[in-house]
UniProtKB/TrEMBL annotation:
Keywords: Signalosome. One of its GO terms (cellular component) is COP9 signalosome. Residues 291-300 have a biased composition (Basic residues). Residues 201-300 are annotated as: Disordered. Residues 201-212, 236-255 have a biased composition (Low complexity). This is PCI domain-containing protein. The lineage of its organism: Eukaryota, Rhodophyta, Bangiophyceae, Cyanidiales, Cyanidiaceae. It comes from Cyanidium caldarium.
Length: 300
């Protein structure tokens, strides 16, 4: 549902303020004030804003019928008509209340069945009700359409909004205060829960630090594993063998490749043929061949 405000609504509210100002000027306890209230009640251009007139009338000494009429126009319905002593209910006044009652119903629901409308508006015939609804739509009191198949009126927009009953305002204020109190209580509970979670997280982190052991790193010798000598490797293998023969064998198999990797094999340097031994020649076939060539060249 849309509250379709605009120039038309502003004119209606302005007209209500004009009536309120005239009521202040003529005095709320004079005969002119009573006539002014009756004129405002039947004004076809005034559909809302009777609450402002009622606020001014309460400050004076208007008759009870005038005050009851303003209350009825401000937030009453057609079926809630008061019992007037001196005021007569004219057809114009009843038609005004039908429009105001229809505005109240349209504010409460977008789907208004014909049966409910006939009861609230006191219109017995369906054809008469449909003609009245078409007239109200053409006047701009409400924006909507008739659904003859579903026997209902569909509200689409409301150009006017009626005054809110003072009792409803008090109920709304009480409910808002209750909501505010509930929200404050909920926020306090959430704050306490957040603080408890933070404290638990800090305690868990502190406990984890105390229970976690320090990492044990192996002690390396100066120079690293490759910087140790062959004697040190042999001593380590011997110490392992003294503990367990199987462990010693495994350590030896690891130590030997390390020794072969660290040992740099040097080729023998020959200064003369006399210094070359038969063992060196057997170990190096190329060396033996070179020695034989030198000997032949010496013989020649």
């Amino acid at each position: 549902m849309t509250l379709a405000g605009g120039e038309q609504e502003q004119r209606v509210w302005k007209r209500g303020q004009e009536y309120a100002q005239q009521l202040r000027e003529c005095g709320a306890d004079s005969t002119a004030a009573v006539k002014l209230v009756e004129e405002a009640a039947t004004d076809p251009l005034l559909l809302c804003g009777y609450g402002a007139l009622l606020a001014v009338a309460r400050k004076g000494n208007l008759p009870d019928d005038s005050l009851a009429l303003l209350r009825w126009l401000a937030w009453g319905t057609l079926r809630q008509r008061p019992s007037f002593r001196t005021l007569s209910l004219t057809e114009a006044l009843l038609d005004k209340m039908r429009r105001l009652t229809f505005l109240s119903l349209a504010t409460q629901s977008l789907w208004l069945p014909y049966a409910a409308l006939r009861d609230e508006l006191e219109i017995e015939e369906q054809e008469e009700l449909e003609e009245w609804l078409i007239e109200v739509v053409e006047e701009g009191v409400v924006v909507g359409q008739l659904d003859t198949d579903q026997q209902a009126f569909l509200v689409q927009a409301l150009p006017y909004v009626r005054d809110v009953d003072e009792r409803r305002l008090q109920q709304m204020e009480t409910r808002v205060n209750e909501w505010e109190a509930n929200i404050r209580a909920t926020l306090e509970v959430l704050d306490r829960a957040i603080e408890a979670m933070r404290a638990a997280a800090q305690t868990a982190r502190a406990t984890s630090r105390r229970m976690t052991p320090a990492p044990a790193y192996p002690q390396e010798r100066p120079g690293g594993a490759e910087g140790c000598s062959d004697e040190e490797s042999s001593e380590e293998a011997g110490s392992i063998a003294a503990v367990d023969p199987a462990t010693a064998a495994a350590a030896a198999s690891v130590a030997l490749p390390l020794r072969s990797h660290r040992t740099v094999r040097e080729r023998p340097t020959l200064t003369s043929d006399a210094e070359t031994s038969p063992e060196q020649m057997e170990a190096s076939p190329g060396l033996a061949t070179g020695t034989r060539r030198k000997r032949r060249s010496g013989r020649d």
